[in-house]
Amino acid sequence: MTSPQTVICMRWGTRYGADYVNRLYRMVRRNTERPLRFVCFTDDATGYEEGIEAMPLPPIDLPERVRWYPWRKIALWQDPLADITGDVLFFDIDLVITGSIDAFFDYSPEKTFIVAENWTQPGSGIGNTSCYRFRVGAHSYLYDNLMADPAAKVDEHRISQVYISREIREMDFWPSEWCQSFKHSLMPKWPMNHFLTPKLPPQTRVVAFTGKPDPDEARDGRWPAPWYKKIYKAVRPTPWIGEHWG
């Protein structure tokens, strides 16, 4: 029997409800032809669909100012990580899957960390941790080194994905066409964003929604922003989001 591919995510706080995890789970299921294990590390295990394994957030001791920010995702690098082993695919819960995820498991199987290149820092060697594959336990020093002096590491790197990118011993990037940023890759530049609908390139597998707008807002053509920023923070209704999201 073929071992299942493991996909994990994290959810804490109140910004995103359980429905975001449920949508991610359904997107993952639709876009794989293989056995699947889907795990959500969370502080609230209620409201999840059958097939989602809800597990407690892995322990991590962070300075209060970043305790509930993406730095918490560094907890996934500890060893052991619950009962999870091998190569694991991580997705943020606010992204949209638009193509098969199986290629993420097949690509460069010898690599222990593959990540999307950060769209706002091309050529800088910085990964965007909305979508990455890692081998559990292969880089546990990332967690250990952070726990040795959390405040100093946070001060030195400021952003958790910069910390990972600068201190990990092995890193590779996905093919650039696989992972797109809705805001930085697909949105028409101002002023054309007022008139043109963002297009979905055919080879795209994952669309990340960093900051605002969220997927439902972009789908409906809404970008929450103060009135004085509306001149450039605008998005046309984008139907393909609704076709894939959920």
Secondary structure: elements and pairs:
Layout: E1 5-11, H1 18-30, E2 36-42, E3 52-56, E4 87-91, E5 96-97, H2 102-106, E6 113-117, E7 127-135, H3 141-148, H4 150-157, H5 160-167, E8 172-173, E9 179-181, H6 182-186, E10 206-208, H7 215-220, H8 239-244
Parallel strand pairs: 1-2, 1-4, 2-3, 6-8, 9-10
Antiparallel strand pairs: 4-7, 5-10, 6-7
Helix pairs in contact: 3-4
Notes on the structure:
The longest helix is centred in the N-terminal third of the chain and has 13 residues, at 18-30. Strand 9, helix 6 and strand 10 form a beta-alpha-beta unit. With 246 residues, the chain is an alpha/beta fold. The strands form 2 sheets. A 7-stranded mixed β-sheet has the order 3-2-1-4-7-6-8, sandwiched between helices. The model has no long low-confidence stretch (mean pLDDT 96). 24% of the residues lie in helices and 20% in strands. It has helices spanning 18-30, 102-106, 141-148, 150-157, 160-167, 182-186, 215-220, 239-244, and strands spanning 5-11, 36-42, 52-56, 87-91, 96-97, 113-117, 127-135, 172-173, 179-181, 206-208.
